[in-house]
Design goal:
Radius of gyration: 25 Å
Order of helices and strands: HEHHEHEHHHEHHHEHHHEHEEHHHHEHH
Helix content: 40-55%
Strand content: 5-15%
Oligomer: single chain
CATH architecture of the largest domain: 3-Layer(aba) Sandwich
Number of helices: 20
CATH topology of the largest domain: D-Maltodextrin-Binding Protein, domain 2
Structural class: alpha/beta
Shape: globular
Number of domains: 2
Distance between the termini: 79 Å
Number of strands: 9
CATH class of the largest domain: Alpha Beta
């Protein structure tokens, strides 16, 4: 009898507690695809905060799924093509909007609905250009800008300072520049560099050309065949007067500007100014090479600054940044916006929209920025510029020479990178690569128009 009473008591306790446990466990989990790297590391902090402090009020949890930096587009696009409800929010970028917007849910209607947007969030707190990066050509908003990404020239300030003050180094620099580039070049402040200066410094800081170089290689040049690699090259392409599209929106790669920019990139690979492994390297490998003191400089993403110049980094305090080198048309610094948008095929659009609305708040932006993300919130960037100097550098560079590609660039980015890489790696000659890219990219764009 006693055992029966105990059993009944246990059942009663479980029944009494069941509604509360059931309510918590039964919350839907919004599923969001995100970009692996410092962005997902920062988002982890935001997600943890949400799930511990906001989920019960909002009515759902949130989790991110990482597909890999080189596979994310293929996997997202497979889900889109299948009209899969398995994902509620897609990771996107301003340059991908041209091929993603038709698979995404317009966002403004949800931001305007106070029953969904219980936080009263709006787009006003974000840098306008980053919000506009998630608007399609007709002005429809499709996403939340979470990161402002741009390119810097990173360089070892201790080594450049020595070069600018050491007469013996300067004599060697001039000799190497004359031998390798056929030009009489004087060492300069990197902010004033042309691409010839960049190459001359790369030769000087490569042991194969200067046995006394403190670094093994002059630079790290991204070579992995993925869209972002082509964007790093685009700073150079713009500086010689080229662009991916002409004024009428037509593909525009088969020109002398592209040949000149390819020659700069090919020199680094062909002459061994960049590590051999960089042929298949990108963001993480670049960070590692700079931290290890293997390279003296790199044209690299702003997101790498926090890692390369971290307090525990061997090169902490020895890293400075400026705009990428100039060509005849001046300096240019590529930028685009990364973020998330609601899947058109989600069966939980309202929950996804409530999450997106909260991501538009300064509360979310500050959490993201403190964790290493580069949230394009005007208030957060202003408040945190002392703590994170890269924000100030970023604003200065983008104000001076920032430029972006149109939302249709993502349609051909992988194709462009593949053929450009074949050219700068010497697999095919420049004329063949550019003619093929011109033809194939034009054909691909015709399917989307």
């Amino acid at each position: 009898m006693k055992k029966v009473l105990v059993a009944l008591l246990i059942v009663a306790v479980l029944l009494c507690s069941a509604p509360m446990a059931f309510a918590a466990d039964d919350l839907y989990t919004v599923r969001m695809v995100y970009w692996p790297g410092p962005e997902s590391d920062a988002m982890d902090v935001v997600l943890n905060y949400w799930n511990e402090n906001k989920a019960q009020e909002a009515g759902f949890y949130v989790e991110q799924e990482l597909f890999g930096r080189d596979n994310i587009l293929l996997k997202e696009e497979a889900l889109m093509a299948a009209k899969s409800p398995d994902v509620d929010l897609f990771f996107t970028a301003s340059r991908w909007l041209g091929k993603y917007w038709m698979h995404m849910e317009p966002l403004q209607q949800y931001l305007d609905n106070p029953e969904i947007n219980i936080y009263g969030a709006d787009t006003e707190g974000r840098i306008p250009a980053t919000v506009d990066g998630f608007r399609w050509l007709d002005g429809t908003l499709y996403g939340v800008p979470m990161d402002l990404s741009n390119h810097f020239l990173y360089y070892r300030s201790d080594l450049i300072d020595e070069l600018l003050s050491n007469e013996e180094w300067q004599a060697t620099y001039k000799k190497i520049a004359s031998e390798q580039l056929g030009k009489e070049l004087e060492p300069k402040d990197p902010a004033d560099w042309t691409w010839d200066d960049y190459l001359a410094a790369s030769f000087f800081f490569t042991k194969a050309y200067n046995p006394d170089s403190p670094t093994e290689y002059g630079n790290f040049t991204h070579g992995k065949v993925m869209g972002p690699t082509a964007f790093l090259w685009t700073n150079c392409y713009w500086s010689f007067g080229g662009d991916w599209f002409d004024a009428d929106g037509n593909v525009a790669f088969d020109n002398d500007a592209a040949r000149q920019a390819l020659a700069v990139w090919k020199t680094s690979f062909e002459k061994g100014l960049t590590p051999e492994s960089s042929v298949n390297g990108e963001f993480a490998e670049d960070n590692e090479a700079m931290i290890a003191g293997q390279c003296a400089m790199t044209v690299h993403w702003n997101a790498g600054y926090a890692t390369i110049n971290a307090e525990e980094s061997p090169v902490h305090g020895k890293i400075k940044v400026c705009a990428p080198p100039a060509g005849p048309e001046g300096h240019f610094a590529y930028n685009h916006t990364l973020g998330v948008g609601i899947s058109k095929y989600s069966e939980h659009k309202e929950e996804a929209a409530r999450w997106a609305a909260w991501l538009y708040t300064d509360e979310a932006a500050k959490l993201y920025a403190e964790a290493g993300g580069i949230a394009p919130s005007k208030a957060v960037l202003a408040d945190m510029s002392d703590q994170f100097p890269v924000y100030g550098y970023m604003v200065d560079v983008l104000n001076d020479c920032g430029r972006n590609l149109p939302p249709t660039a993502g349609i051909i980015e992988d194709m462009a990178c593949g053929l450009l890489a074949d050219a700068w790696n010497g697999v095919i000659d420049f004329d063949t690569a550019l003619a093929q890219l011109q033809a194939e990219a034009t054909e691909e764009m015709s399917y989307w128009q």
